[in-house]
Specification:
Number of helices: 20
Low-confidence stretches: 1-47
Strand content: 5-15%
Radius of gyration: 22 Å
Helix content: 40-55%
CATH topology of the domain at 45-173 and 374-444: D-Maltodextrin-Binding Protein, domain 2
Number of strands: 14
Mean pLDDT: 91
Structural class: alpha/beta
Length: 493
């Protein structure tokens, strides 16, 4: 079966990427969403009331099928105690957030559980829309969950004495470096992947000068993917967008050290976007464009989510990857539900032409920090059966459920123990790297803030078109825009 390459990354989509879209349009669209919440625009099929014993979960469209599978299993295991009913939110994350906000602000008691993008925790907790996880369950989650996904579900409201768990991590994701080892061997005499962005830029230029394909595929379009790229490089350089312990403070230029980290990050983005052999469409590129650039044979390197490995495997086996026709020998096997040992053989063969490595660092010898994606489950404050909702949520995040999310849905688990599971390792040959990058000391969360959506909108608008600016002056411009978002300004140009 051909792989379409739809990423399971938890990255909010804000429309068709277009670096030529007027910045006013983007900012007015963000403002329009806020206005819609404020004035109470109608939402189609808005439910009201609740049925005792029926746990309504609202989740994103991409995860609906696997959520139905696990919901059916949990309903059966509950022996009549509850029935989980899945409601599908719109495809776009902005629309998901808007619909949930409308329901919660309207005190809709028919909402029990919600699939929350990892960047929504602070906003929903501050608004009083989600319940803190009970202490016994929270202790269990903290013991078994990888540090990055765990951090995405923590927040401290003004009523809390310390950070608390406001959602249950359900699945996660992280970007890796993908490269062509055959090109590395042919043009550079080595298959060792670059460890830093500077090393990758140097390798790409040497390949270009030797006549080989030299594109570095990244998400440079004006959307959330650009925010992910900037945040990963910035955090890897030792910087941050806001103070992790004080969301009211921007930290892009507040100290000399922070300013240097921001400058280095911007220099890297500009270097990738303007290198002699760069992807000419990088200012319009999203995850799918990155996948296609690699599969077409035009790229030497790619930064992307793990979905690209399965895509390369299946599309090459179908004969659709021009530089990897040898993969067609595995077409019949891949269409026949191969066993773990057989899949391992196929994966090893894929890696001779398309391999993976940790996310590139900024400082030599210092591991990078890669921005995570994913989904958490929250219990709505409007629910009339919160204890039962938490019980259902716990079932929806068991090891058995997370294996389904990972193997059937392409969403890496948050539980530490699953990274040694044979079925997971067969499906994810890059599983060790994913697990390492989701650990507390390697994961980067997006700026924890109740106004994250405004921060992201202004940052990506300011950085677009990527690389068409001076890094030195951009440091202060970017810091000014983030402060405007924090202060509730800047959404009207």
């Amino acid at each position: 079966m051909r792989h379409t390459g739809v990423p399971h990354d938890g990255v909010p989509r804000t429309g068709v990427p277009n670096d030529r879209a007027p910045r006013k349009w983007v900012l007015r669209r963000a403002l329009g969403i806020a206005v819609a919440v404020a004035v109470g625009l109608p939402v189609a099929a808005c439910g009201s009331g609740h049925t005792p014993g029926t746990i309504n979960i609202y989740t994103n469209a991409d995860g609906a099928a696997i959520t139905r599978t696990t919901s059916a299993a949990c309903t059966k295991d509950s022996a009549g105690k509850y029935t989980i009913k899945v409601h599908v939110l719109p495809k776009a994350a902005d629309d998901q957030r808007l619909q949930l906000a409308r329901r919660l602000a309207g005190n809709d008691s028919g909402v029990d559980l919600m699939g929350l993008d990892v960047v929504w925790t602070a906003e929903f907790a501050d608004a009083g829309w989600i319940e803190p996880v009970p202490d016994p369950l929270a202790a269990k989650i903290k013991e078994t969950t990888l540090g990055g996904p765990l951090a995405s579900a923590l927040w401290q409201t003004t009523d809390d004495s310390e950070k608390r768990l406001y959602a249950i991590p359900t699945w996660s994701n992280t970007q890796l470096l993908w490269f062509r080892p055959d090109l590395m061997k042919q043009y550079l005499g080595t298959t060792r992947p670059p460890a830093t962005w500077d090393e990758m830029l140097d390798a790409a230029e040497k390949i270009r000068k030797a006549g080989g394909p030299s594109w570095i595929m990244e998400q440079g379009a004006q959307y959330e993917g650009l925010m992910v790229w900037f945040n990963s490089v910035l955090t890897s350089a030792g910087g941050s967008v806001v103070d992790p312990d004080d969301a009211s403070t921007q930290t892009l230029n507040d100290t000399a050290e922070h300013r240097a980290a921001t400058l280095k990050a911007l220099q890297i983005l500009k270097a990738v976007a303007t290198a002699p052999g760069h992807d000419p469409s990088i200012t319009n590129a999203d995850e799918t464009a990155g996948r296609l650039g690699m599969e077409s044979g035009k790229a030497a390197f790619q930064i992307n989510w793990p979905f690209v490995f399965a895509s390369m495997r299946s599309n090459a086996a179908a004969g659709d990857v021009p530089f990897f026709k040898e993969m067609t020998r595995y077409a019949d096997l891949l269409n026949s539900n191969p066993q773990n040992n057989q899949l391992g053989e196929v994966n090893n063969f894929v890696r001779t032409r398309f391999d993976f490595a940790p996310y590139p660092g900024v400082i030599p010898g210092v591991p990078a920090r890669s921005t995570i994606g994913g989904l958490n489950i929250g219990v709505a404050s409007t629910s009339k059966q919160k204890a039962l909702a938490f019980e259902a949520a716990e079932c929806l995040t068991t090891p058995a459920a997370q294996k389904i999310y990972a193997i059937d849905g392409g969403n890496p688990p948050v539980l530490k123990a699953l990274y040694g599971d044979p079925d997971f390792r067969a499906a994810y040959p890059m599983g060790d790297i994913i697990g390492q990058q989701l650990a507390a000391d390697r994961a980067a969360t997006r700026p924890p803030s109740p106004v994250y959506q405004s921060i992201s909108t202004l940052v990506t608008a300011t950085l677009s078109p990527v690389g068409a600016w001076d890094p030195e002056s951009m440091v202060d411009e970017l810091a000014d825009q983030v402060q405007k978002a924090i202060d509730g300004k800047g959404l009207i140009p």
